[in-house]
TrEMBL record, chain A:
GO terms for cellular component: cytosol; mitochondrion. Residues 29-91 form the Glutaredoxin domain. GO terms for biological process: cell redox homeostasis; cellular response to oxidative stress; glutathione metabolic process. This is thioredoxin-disulfide reductase (NADPH).
From TrEMBL, chain B:
It comes from Phocoena sinus. Residues 1-20 have a biased composition (Basic and acidic residues). Keywords: Disulfide bond, FAD, Flavoprotein, NADP, Oxidoreductase, Redox-active center, Selenocysteine. Its EC number is 1.11.1.2, 1.8.1.9. This is Thioredoxin reductase 1, cytoplasmic. The lineage of its organism: Eukaryota, Metazoa, Chordata, Craniata, Vertebrata. It catalyses: [thioredoxin]-dithiol + NADP(+) = [thioredoxin]-disulfide + NADPH + H(+); H2O2 + NADPH + H(+) = NADP(+) + 2 H2O. Belongs to the class-I pyridine nucleotide-disulfide oxidoreductase family.
Amino acid sequence: MSAAYPRLSSAAREELRRRLLGLIEGHRVVIFSKSYCPHSARVKELFSSLGVDCNILELDQVDDGASVQEVLSEITNQRTVPSIFVNKVHVGGCDRTFQAHQSGVLQKLLQEDPTYDYDLIVIGGGSGGLSCAQEAAALGRRVMVLDLVVPSPQGTSWGVAGTCVNVGCVPKKLMHQAALLGQALTDSRKFGWECSQQVKHNWETMTEAIQKHVGSLNRSYQRALREKAVAYVNSYGEFVEHHKIKATNGKGQETYYTAAKFVIATGERPRYLGIQGDKEYCITSDDLFSLPYCPGATLVVGASSVALECAGFLAGLGLEVTVMVSSQLLRGFDQEMAEKVASSMQQLGVRFLRKFVPLQQLEKGSPGKLKVVAKSTEGTEMIEGLYNTVLLAIGRDSCTKKIGLEKIGVKVNEKTGKIPVNDVEQSSVPYVYAVGDVVEGQTELTPVAVQAGRLLARRLFGGRLEKVTGTVQLVQKLSSLYKEEPVKRRSPWTPTLASLLQVYHTLFWPLEWTVACRDSNTCYAKIICSKLDNDRVIGFHVLGPKAGEITQGFAAAMKCGLTKQLLDDTIGIHPTCAQVFTTLETTKSSGLDITQKGC
Amino acid sequence: MGCSKSKEARVAERQADGKRGRGGRRAAKDHLFSPTSPENSTGSASTALTGPSAQLQAWIDSHSEVTLSKSTCKRYTEVKKLFKSISVPYFLLELDQAENGRGLEGALCELTLKTDVPVVFVKRRQLGGHGPTLKAYQEGRLQNLLKMNGPGDLPESYDYDLIIVGGGSGGLAAAKEAAKYDKKVMVLDFVTPTPLGTRWGLGGTCVNVGCIPKKLMHQAALLGQALRDSRNYGWNVEEIVKHDWERMTEAVQNHIGSLNWGYRVALREKKVTYENAYGQFVGPHRIKATNNKGKEKIYSAERFLIATGERPRYLGIPGDKEYCISSDDLFSLPYCPGKTLVVGASYVALECAGFLAGIGLDVTVMVRSILLRGFDQDMANKIGEHMEEHGIKFIRQFVPIKVEQIEAGTPGRLRVVAKSTDSDITIEGEYNTVLLAIGRDACTREIGLENVGVKLNEQTGKIPVTDEEQTSVPYIYAIGDVLEGKLELTPVAIQAGRLLVRRLYGSSTVKCDYENVPTTVFTPLEYGACGLSEEKAVEKFGEENIEVYHSHFWPLEWTIPSRDNNKCYAKIVCNIKDSERVVGFHVLGPNAGEVTQGFAAALKCGLTKDQLDGTIGIHPVCAEVFTTLSVTKRSGENILQTGCG
């Protein structure tokens, strides 16, 4: 066998791909095999023992065998033979086929009635699920989306499109913007605008405006689904048996649907503390953005990005805000940046209670007030505080427990509730896939889910070939009040590798802030370069206004192999914040002063 | 200390420069009457060996000082005395004593168009008669001329390693960088007041009358928008908020003052000599510095850097310098300009019009032909449309021909008469302020470049340089806006200055890359660009070989106030033949500069459409639109946004 496979033109490759998909779709069982392969032989024996006719393609006996293998591996991400398809579903190789046989999945697959109600049912109508459904529909498939929001303990629920649009990115950024505008009002006086000193904020006006926008987004998503002929059913989906799902609507009516393939995109919901009174009295980010009254003095419990973002904009709207943190801030992010975020929030009046957790007592104090008792994580110290609102932002749990996964044998990580998938988003059950926040090890970001959903649909139903894998550059963005910190990581490293890294950094002062005379030397730029790899930029961090806008382009540059030299050769745009990255000179190891004096 | 090294460098330079150097001159000394000199550039000597013209030319060419006189002339004795007193060897020809006196006199007359004597030539240059010669001596020009061209004429040692003419962004960056190499550096910076008397401190255009005040005033306008938006976000701001021009300019000027001060401190710390004086070349390696009291000093340096930048152009019509202001005046104008006519369609014109309208003024822009020449015209027109929608009036295809004052005041009232560019129609309008922003001229005409022979583009006044920023005179360099065919941007000047100094004094060989320079225009709808415009790309690669991807987008922050949907626009231009490499990047929208910078780095890294598609977006920001561009312009598909993606 020659090592190099023949180079196919993209047209020829597409043609071959179509041929293979035709083969797979047109037969009950297809085995891609090599005549000398013992594993292939075992599989063939298995099927003949089951009395099933197989369509077998021996790759070593056809002229374009190597090309077939190449294209096949693109479809399945499995490079080896045998490769088995049963009723259009890729079961896997020899081992997986035998496992499927033992668990009964194979028999189930073989019994498949090919006349399912749908080609694809997507469970969960969030960013990932909808992008997958729409793409599949655009490729001519019959697609259904099941989406039902279980109300929060406080009774909050919302429309189509999931967390990002309803209780995530969108309302969060809008409230962040409201806080920024509060700062703009203060700044505007310095720039000659004669607005009054004391401008009050009206919570109801803001949330109403935001909810109106969210509502218009819900409607536009529904319209898009209709236009693409995706069946949208506002019901809760739960697997009842293989290829069959029960859909329960808000009135408790149950309907059953079948489909050839399923995508789980149910996402996550906020976690509760599990202490007395938490569900009765506390709110979460699910409730905050449509809260009908101003939350007043607020305790935010947690140190996740959600916690700090909410604390930031609440403080920016003029509320008294306290953040209770059990251990680390922004776990998983660059810790230097995380601490800088916290200290800038402190400057804005946010109070931090570090190393404390709420105790088993949370009670309604005097009307409209909550008494929170917290205990030190390091000692026996106890503190007590009175707040109007307690916002929990201690983490999120996947919605995988009550959707009948156990009925069809989809494996779930018991501890985290996340679904492990292979690198083509396939779960342990071949015809069930998962995208978005429910996927184990996946970055929980909207654009990641959107990209994954879209590419999955293309892989399943034809179209361009791509996959979202571990090599995807992760771009995370965190905005707290006035401060945004996006963190970009490529690979984690251990301290012993530190000597192979060069860190360049500097503080900077946005021009717009100079006249307003605020926050000199709080904005911070940092890049991490690998000395072994030509000073390639492997980490990019910025703390300052418009951090997301700044980071996006550099993310693309890192995708193209940005090095320190190329960064230095890039000419800055004056006067912007982003230009600071083109003139980074001070290394962290030099210990030189990075405070800015001039401009 | 640094001098020993610089002397070596100087020797090398002389050798490289040997053509004009010693060889010819030494030879000429021994053959006083040799009519052919290797450096002869007039060509007349080659015509005949014996003619009086040739003979005269030969003398002039071969002696550093030639005086033609008559023995009877009284005035000559004074000139003679002068040359003796400064102990300069001189060559005297007394016409009335010479063999062919009449012929020579005739030839002299032909050459100088003068009949009286004495006539003094210094270094082949006709200095003139008795009066001009003495004056030249008093001014030091004579001494400098005598020392020009040739090793014997050079100063023994230089006052400085590097003298930089112009203390703007480029000049200062170069100065600070040179100081890092322990070089003795001087910066000459002097702001000639505008016709209305505005002047400013150290730091050049960008800091004083450019980028910095412009962006701050743009920010003031943005904050005006923020005030309006904030009501939708629940802030109880009063319905009508007035703007106070004086308070804004004071705040802006205070900031600028602190920057001016910061620059001076930085120069002091780096031991760079700063003189607030006007620099003019007077001879090789020599410059005259004139301060605001008219006091003159001469400094010598091994190398010079011209970084004098540009100043606004005037119309050259009646009333323009008396009554109009330019961007040089606007940012420190002590009173609110009121109803303003902006003349021009440069980015300066549109930016100023934008922020003046943004703080609530009545603004009209008079445009001769197209908006933002040199920028992508698709984008330029979108900017124009947006400005019109936001209440800025445009008068197209008209040019002012007269500006008259109706009433003096702060502001006063002016009448502007303008004429159509394609007919005889004239129109009249009344404004409080007329702001000219029709272009800028390089400050190269009055810095004595002719005295040292630095070549200029006569038409534009710009200085052509090599790719190492060297002018036609090897020891004189130039950076920044004075350069011919280069971009007029602060960071370009800074980069060029730094890299130049590193090449001169460090061991660097890195040259300034003027390709893919990103820029941004702070119009109300900001514009960020990097690489080629669509027109340029079509011209360079052919229309069939480029693919343009584009999309409108609606910044999330603008949805709540529900404004400007389908105004923001993203466009990339790809070269199909080169794996869809991105050769042009254009964005219209808030924070366009911040968005563009990173993509500029990506273009530097050879970004392709595939790589762009493979980049995961950051949600929800404007910049993420570039990671999901799917509609080609060719397809003509709808790019209006109806919802959020």
